[in-house]
Write a structure and sequence with these properties.
The complex is a heterotrimer of chains A (457), B (456) and C (279). Chain A is an all-alpha fold. Chain A folds into 2 domains: 154 residues, no CATH class; 240 residues, MetI-like (MetI-like fold). Chain A is built from 16 helices and 2 strands. Chain A has a two-stranded antiparallel sheet. Chain A starts with a helix and ends with a helix. By secondary structure, chain B is mostly helical. In chain B, 64% of the residues lie in helices and 5% in strands. Chain B has 2 domains: 151 residues, no CATH class; 219 residues, MetI-like (MetI-like fold). Chain C is an alpha/beta fold. In chain C, the strands form 2 sheets. Chain C has a 6-stranded mixed beta sheet, sandwiched between helices. In chain C, strands 2-1-4-5 form a 4-stranded antiparallel beta sheet. Classes of the chains: A mainly alpha (457), B mainly alpha (456), C alpha/beta (279). Chains in contact: A-B, A-C, B-C. Chains A and B meet through helix 6, helix 8, helix 9, helix 10 and helix 11 of A and helix 1, helix 9, helix 10, helix 11 and helix 12 of B. Chain A: It is found in: Cell inner membrane; Cell membrane. Chain A: Its main location: membrane. Chain A: Keywords: Cell inner membrane, Cell membrane, Membrane, Phosphate transport, Transmembrane, Transmembrane helix, Transport. Chain A: One of its GO terms (cellular component) is plasma membrane.
């Protein structure tokens, strides 16, 4: 409620500031000989901006201190024996007090000291909110008045407004960096907590994956990464074996042979494959491809499990085909026409030209595409969740059920999540492993592709 | 002039020509083979598309037509013994009125709707099934339908005492039985439908009481476990809608702003180079890692609620941000520098140039980038599983903070339903809906691109 | 169109007045002959009924302002226009009396006999050795590795490049200077031992010194090969060729011995062009 009031006050003050600034601008420029530097709207905007900036600063500072002060207020109202409770029990008590204070209601009867603290908290909240509203309003007004007094014909209002816009744009591009920082920090932070439970050596080199349920109790499970890693690599390898030949040959045919008619029809259709959500591939693998492979295996006397590394890999390969074909297509068409002419002019056939000149010339780019595809396959989740059989046993037969790093992340972190048990935290160690693997592949691949592009620019 | 006239040229030429000619046949065969392999690859890829769509359509379309009973139900006042709904009397305390209304609703809920249904079904049963068991008769109708009947009366109390025509969904297993999804030759002990129900279902289908009617419930109902036949996508759809709103409201402005900064303002130095590399890498980070980020930061650290579309939307925002930035930058880069120079030459500041000239020209491209990003977010499943959006939610979320699920997650949940015999079709129907949405989005993107694309 | 001397007889008549170093008898038997060659790019006609003889063991240059169809004509001579989807060629071109647009003739064989050097040096991203060995390899001209090495060495020698690169044959061809690259491309073309070499403005991307070397090379190559060169530099045409053909707007305007063309052109357009009124 008080949030809405603050937003309302702020918006009103900004609008007011804009209007007042326009008026002041007219008055100041009217009696001056100097040609004003900026258009009136920029003066208005500048005042509105300087109205908002101090107010936002106040809100942020208040927001930072709020939890600290709340905690202090509650603690000071609690009897000493409660204050000395162990941390997690104390946290429970404080949550109950919050719920009483906000009128949310709690389970069971409120203890007297809880009621006392809740009343205290309520009073404090009222004061706090009032102070916040007052401070926000007065700082906004202060900013407004100060900027208003700065308005002269010479004021470079446009430059100042533009500087603020530029800072805002810069902040927006920092979001991407913050995301990376957030990923690294959260994965690393939680993984370190996990390694407090489990020795990193046991994790990275363990051959048994059996995390058990956290509810079973202190009984430590086995957190060996290797079965998952082997499954991931096996499934990715199968996917690449399917996708690379088909994708590359498709790209070659599209770039070198296909009539523009065929290209215009076939290319968008194949690219549809890239836009289909992975869950759809997963269901397809589970209900269509898996049973089909099992029947096929039975027909030729091979024992193929319906949910297996092979099923997941093959269907994932289909998903990756357009990824490889469109990247390779781009790269092949970037090979200069003079190369093609040079080879054809010597009497080479088209296929000789492709195999001996174009592909070698495009090789770095294709390697880049290949690495990106591998990274894509390693990080793929839903197809493997549904079609690989979820069997975290170290084995190398692609026709038996398997699993992957991503599947285990899903398994460990869905359902009741408690961020204090190794069973949940291991998901972050797995995520860290996954992140490092894909990051390495991506960095190398993007570097190669970039260098390749520069070569022909 | 024959070839021998060239004998004046050196002898090796003829030898070489012979060598070239000798190899021609083999080389042309090789050429044809290579071309065939290429064509085969193209057709293999096209065939995959066909198989994928074919199987989804083939399996999913039947779910849009579902076994429905057309019944005449008499809402006898002596069975629905609740009296008229209370009317607020002049001067009556609102709280008292509210209590009366609640009592009336409770009474309505206590009515034995099963009995009413049974009576209606018995009315249309052939004579030889007159002694059918009550349990079997009630089992024919999807269990959620009696609440639908109750809600109908709740909406319009004047129906009490009338006889009305209604369409009610048949039970999921009846639907399977009539569609032939159940192997009728299996022993009775392994049938999901009791022998009595089987007879009734067949008899009603023969009489035309049960027909396959278009099933609007799949669009307008929420998910249901107790009454699989009436499970629908409404809740998941709203969940996805809320998330897409969050993505559009956050990812688009932030993405476009950072693309503008990087393309139009940023100095070329190590820092911007780092941002660039960083964005490209972020675009290739597996989606599940964003789920981990969401679980750790939004759920564990910021204590945002589990299963909320708001959190899902935030995670998807971070995930689609790089896509939108990269696509928008491509658009900005395609705008010829001459336009920028023209604006700057007239004395516009850099900011004015960008916002008055470059940005308006980039709008079609930005719209396309937005749609690409939204389509990517719409189909994403894995990160949502990690922030609890796979919870079973039997209501339409009314705000982005309510528990909800999403379309792709609903597909995941339905494919895992124990009554997979029935849910296989529904899963594929949900896939059809999802793919339909994505194809429409992309079609809009293509259309926009063609409509407002400028040529320089 | 009266003033266009496009009939083969007229070409022959002028050929007799060619400079003394031209072997007279070979001029009488043209290595290649084009009759009524027209080229369309989609709906646009780029070349109109060109008739031209290419005499054996001589250098003939095709000159004219840009867009006049000289490169288009050159690309007809080894059917490089086949690689452009929208190009359509009509008329007759013969090589030693055989119609090169005949269905029975293999374009691969044709290009082995009629090699081509392009405007921009386009060495393959391979080693110098592999660049030169490319043609012999695909055509199966050398069975043993020694034969291949010999072909490469001779070709490089003939292209006057051998001494410059003999110590670094396994370095990438793209690492050479522009002039060296173009001579590498010439070596690559002659490694297949073609009968005719087509050169499409081979010096336009080169500096004067490199150009001089390539021109010297062309003069030497005349002994063993028939050369057709497209150039926009009249000085170059005068320096390297025995005969010159002038193209304008898709028409062959005039053809004759080079010194005649430059001293006494019959067509006004040739005169205008060589005096620099347009071009």
């Amino acid at each position: 409620m008080s949030d809405l009031i603050i937003v309302g006050i702020l918006l009103a003050l900004m609008a007011l500031g804009y209007q007042v600034a326009l008026g002041r601008y007219r008055k100041v420029t009217g009696r001056s000989e100097v040609r004003p530097h900026s258009r009136p709207a920029y003066h208005g905007l500048l005042v509105a901006i300087w109205c908002a900036i101090p107010a936002l600063a106040v809100i942020i500072v208040f927001g930072l201190f709020e939890p600290v002060i709340t905690r202090y207020v509650i603690l000071s109202a609690l009897p000493p024996e409660v204050r000395d409770l162990p941390t997690h029990e104390l946290r429970g008590v404080m949550q109950r007090i919050h719920q009483i204070a906000t009128g949310f209601g709690i389970v069971g009867e409120a203890r007297p000291y809880e009621n006392v603290a809740a009343t205290r908290l309520g009073t404090y909240h009222a004061i706090w909110n009032f102070a916040l509203v007052a401070l926000v309003a007065s700082s906004a007004v202060a900013g407004l008045v100060y900027t208003l007094r700065r308005i002269t014909p010479r004021l470079r209002a446009r430059n100042e407004v533009e500087r603020v816009i530029r800072v805002l744009l810069l902040l927006c591009s920092a979001v991407a960096i913050m995301t990376t920082v957030g990923i690294v920090a959260s994965l690393l932070g939680e993984a370190v907590r996990f390694f407090g439970f489990v020795n990193p050596l046991d994790f990275f080199f363990g051959t048994v994956w059996n995390p058990r349920f956290s509810s079973v109790g202190a009984g430590q499970g086995d957190f060996g990464l290797l079965p998952l890693l082997v499954g991931t690599l096996m499934i990715s390898a199968i996917a690449i074996l399917v996708a690379l030949p088909i994708g590359l040959m498709t790209a070659i045919y599209m770039a070198e042979y296909a009539s523009s008619h065929l290209r215009n029809i076939a290319k968008p259709i194949i690219e549809i494959l890239a836009g289909i959500p992975t869950i759809v591939y997963g269901v397809f693998a589970l209900t269509v491809a898996g049973p089909f492979f099992a029947d096929l295996g039975a027909a030729v006397g091979l024992d193929i499990s319906a949910t297996s590394a092979f099923t997941a890999g093959a269907v994932m390969g289909v998903m990756i085909i357009p990824f490889i074909s469109s990247l390779s297509d781009d790269i092949i068409t970037q090979v200069p026409a003079s190369m093609r002419d040079g080879s054809l002019g010597l009497g080479a056939t088209r296929s000789e030209t492709i195999k001996r000149v174009i592909l070698p010339a495009a090789l770095p780019g294709i390697v880049g595409a290949f690495l990106l595809a591998v990274s894509r396959a390693i990080g793929e989740t839903m197809i493997v969740v549904l079609a690989a059989g979820n069997s975290p046993v170290l084995r190398f037969n692609p026709f038996e059920p398997s699993t992957s790093v991503t599947v285990s992340i899903v398994n460990q972190l869905t359902g009741d999540t408690d961020f204090a048990s190794p069973q949940s935290l291991v998901a972050f160690a797995l995520g860290l492993t996954l992140f490092i693997m894909t990051l390495g592949l991506n960095v190398v691949a993007l570097y190669i592709v970039r260098k390749y592009r520069e070569q022909y620019e | 002039m024959s070839a021998t006239d060239t004998a004046s040229a050196s002898a090796p030429v003829d030898n070489q020509l012979g060598a070239v000619r000798a190899g021609l046949k083999r080389r042309h065969a090789q050429e044809r083979r290579f071309q065939m392999i290429g064509l085969a690859a193209v057709f293999a890829a096209l065939a995959m598309v066909a198989v994928l769509f074919g199987s989804v359509l083939f399996k999913g379309m039947p779910a849009f037509w579902q076994s429905t009973l057309h019944l005449q139900i008499s809402l006898n006042a002596d069975v629905i013994d609740v009296g008229p709904p209370p009317v607020q009397k002049a001067g009556q305390n609102p709280a008292e009125f509210e209590a009366e209304l609640t009592d009336w609703r409770r009474a309505l809920a206590r009515v034995s709707w099963n009995k009413i249904l049974e009576k209606a079904v018995r009315g249309v049963l052939p004579a030889d099934l007159a002694d059918a068991k009550t349990r079997d008769i009630v089992g024919i109708v999807a269990s959620g339908e009696r609440y639908a009947l109750r809600d109908m009366v709740l909406e319009d109390p004047s129906l009490i005492g009338q006889t009305i025509d209604v369409d009610l969904l048949a039970d999921a297993n009846v639907d399977n039985w009539l569609k032939g999804n159940i192997d009728r030759s299996l022993g009775q002990s392994r049938q999901q439908l009791s022998p009595g129900e089987q007879e009734i279902a067949d008899a009603l289908a023969e009489k035309g009481v049960i027909t396959q009617s278009f099933n609007t419930g799949i669009f307008f109902n929420v998910d249901s476990r107790s009454s699989p036949a009436s499970a629908g996508l409404a809740g998941a759809f709203m969940g996805s809608l809320y998330m897409m709103l969050v993505v559009i409201m956050l990812a688009v402005p932030i993405g476009v702003a950072s693309a503008i900064y990087l393309e139009e303002f940023a100095p070329t130095n190590r820092f911007t180079d780092f941002i660039e590399v960083n964005i490209n890498n972020l675009a290739a980070v597996p989606s599940i890692v964003f789920g981990l980020l969401g679980a750790s930061i939004f759920i564990n650290w910021m204590h945002l609620p589990l299963s909320a579309p708001l959190v899902g939307g935030l995670v998807l925002t971070l995930m689609t941000l790089p896509t939108i930035i990269i696509a928008t930058r491509g658009t900005l880069r395609a705008i010829p520098p001459s336009i920028r120079e023209a604006a700057l030459g007239l004395g516009a500041s850099r900011t004015q140039m960008v916002f008055h000239h470059v940005l308006p020209l980039a709008i079609p491209g930005i719209l396309t980038a937005t749609i690409i990003g939204v389509a990517q977010a719409l189909g994403e499943t894995a990160p949502l599983l990690l922030i609890g959006m796979n919870a079973f939610v039997a209501s339409v979320p009314s705000s982005p903070m309510d528990q909800a699920t999403a379309l792709p997650v609903q597909i995941y949940l339905w494919q895992g339903n124990e009554n997979f015999n029935f849910f296989e079709a529904r899963t594929n129907a949900a896939i059809i809906v999802l793919l339909g949405l994505m194809i429409s989005l992309n079609a809009i993107a293509i259309l926009l691109r063609q409509r407002i694309e400028r040529r320089w | 169109m009266n003033d266009i001397s496009h009939s083969p007889s007229a070409a022959k008549a002028t050929a007799t007045k060619a400079p003394p170093e031209v072997p007279q008898e070979s001029a009488a038997v043209p290595k290649m002959r084009a009759e009524k060659v027209s080229v369309h790019y989609a709906d646009k006609q780029a070349l109109f009924d060109v008739d031209l003889d290419v005499p054996e063991n001589q250098v003939i240059s095709l000159i004219g302002p840009s867009g006049c169809g000289k490169s288009t004509f050159l690309r007809c001579l080894n059917r490089m226009n086949d690689t452009i989807d929208i190009a359509r060629v009509s008329g007759h071109i013969t090589l030693d009396g055989e119609n090169i647009y005949d269905k029975a003739l293999d374009v691969v064989e044709l290009r082995a006999r009629v090699g081509m050097v392009f405007q921009k040096p386009n060495p393959f991203p391979k080693s110098i050795f592999e660049n030169v060995a490319y043609g012999p390899r695909i055509h199966g001209l050398a069975s043993a590795k020694r034969d291949l090495e010999e072909i490469v060495a001779t070709s490089l020698q003939r292209a006057g490049l051998f001494n410059e690169v003999k110590d670094r044959l396994d370095e990438p061809g793209t690492g050479l200077s522009g002039g060296q690259q173009q001579r590498l491309c010439i070596a690559r073309a002659i490694a297949v031992n073609p009968e005719v070499i087509l050169m499409d403005e081979p010096c336009s991307a080169l500096d004067p010194i490199a150009t001089a070397k390539v021109e010297e090379l062309i003069d030497e190559l005349r002994e063993n090969y028939t050369i057709v060169i497209v150039t926009h530099s009249m000085q170059q045409a005068a320096r390297v060729s025995q005969r010159t053909a002038m193209f304008h707007l898709g028409y062959l305007v005039e053809e004759g011995p080079t010194d005649m063309m430059f001293t006494n052109p019959t067509d006004k357009r040739t005169q205008d062009y060589i005096t620099g009124r347009f071009g």
